[in-house]
Amino acid sequence: MGGVNPYIQAAKTQKPERPFKVTFQMEDTGEKIEVPVDPAQIPFGDHGLEGSLLDIAEGAGVEINHSCGGVCACSTCHVYVAQGLETCSPSTDDEEDMLDEAPAVTTESRLSCQCVPNGKKDLLVIVPRWNRNEVKEGHG
Ligand code: FES
């Protein structure tokens, strides 16, 4: 399952017009993975909104848990956008409702499948440790 959930309010997204960079930092190990994003390559996969942080992560082989397939129906893809949050699509009421179910929510919290950067700034995205643990368990 992936793509867009027809039963929720559409997110207002703006496609990037120039290349930018997303750095994913693993909260548990501190490891950083820099991912150059070429707007011409979007979408990278078929999970989450096109050009979302989950889509970008998938394209680069960065594992972020996404139990519902990226349709805003769980909260497992919760990440923190530590830099560049102001360049991301605003969260919808549906995303906020799902985030209410997530642990340790902060003002930087987003569902990575619903958060689409417009490319005007580079981003720093923290992948929470519990997310990483679930991914490891889920894939053995
Ligand atoms: S993967 Fe389920 S809400 Fe993002």
TrEMBL record:
One of its GO terms (biological process) is P450-containing electron transport chain. Its cofactor is [2Fe-2S] cluster. It comes from the Bacteria. Keywords: 2Fe-2S, Iron, Iron-sulfur, Metal-binding. GO terms for cellular component: cytosol. Pfam families: Fer2 (PF00111). GO terms for molecular function: 2 iron, 2 sulfur cluster binding; electron transfer activity; metal ion binding. Residues 20-131 form the 2Fe-2S ferredoxin-type domain. Belongs to the adrenodoxin/putidaredoxin family. This is Ferredoxin. It comes from Limnoglobus roseus.
